[in-house]
Amino acid sequence: FVGVLSTNDEANLNALVGAVLEQTGVTFAIAIVDNTGGESLEYYAANLYEEWGIGAKGQDEGLLILLVMDDRDLKAEVGYGLEPIITDRRAGECLDLMTPYFKDDEFGKGLYAGLMRVAECVAKDKGVTVVIDDSVVHLGGIEMTDAVLKKGGVK
């Protein structure tokens, strides 16, 4: 993560990503890079999504959040299977939640806040409650906004 995230940030994000995968089957991935090597943001994100094989084969229910540090650029790449749930508008809302944190260099909190919003939408669509291990999540300042996501133990 290019030294951008603290150990605590990584633990929080891994707990959220793991809970979403285990409880909904949807894959979230985060890539933090210095730059895109001259490629467009869209091309880089799409290629990385494919290269990493995000989302179960045949279902393509995945989301890649790409953060480019040199340009302070941000992109959500949504798999085809997830597009009915995470529309362009919802992906934009997710990114909009992240940017205020990024302005204060709180990248872990921003990523978590945005991914929480997406996780809420996914959980609602799947008819489940995503439960996150509260022994891991220590956010300070991020409110769990929706009853769809509750802190507890990952089963």
Characterization of this structure:
α2 links the parallel β1 (27-33) and β2 (62-68). Mean pLDDT is 82; it is low at 135-155. This protein has 155 residues and is of the alpha/beta class. The protein is globular. It contains four helices and five strands; from the N terminus they run αβαββααββ. The strands form two sheets. A three-stranded mixed sheet has the order 1-2-3, sandwiched between helices. A two-stranded parallel sheet has the order 4-5.
What's the arrangement of secondary structure elements?
Layout: H1 7-24, E1 27-33, H2 41-52, E2 62-68, E3 73-78, H3 88-103, H4 107-126, E4 130-133, E5 149-152
Parallel strand pairs: 1-2, 4-5
Antiparallel strand pairs: 2-3
Helix pairs in contact: 1-4, 3-4
Multimerization state: single chain
Q: Which spans of ≥5 residues are poorly predicted at pLDDT below 50?
A: 135-155
Mean pLDDT metric? 82
Number of helices: 4
Structural class: alpha/beta
Q: Biggest sheet, in brief?
A: 3 strands, mixed
Number of strands: 5
Strand content: 15-25%
Helical residue percent band: 40-55%
Separation of the first and last Cα atoms: 28 Å
**What is the radius of gyration?**
15 Å
Shape: globular
Strands of the widest sheet, in order across it, are 1-2-3
Keywords:
disordered C terminus; 5 strands; single chain
Summarize this entry quickly.
The chain has 155 residues and is an alpha/beta fold.
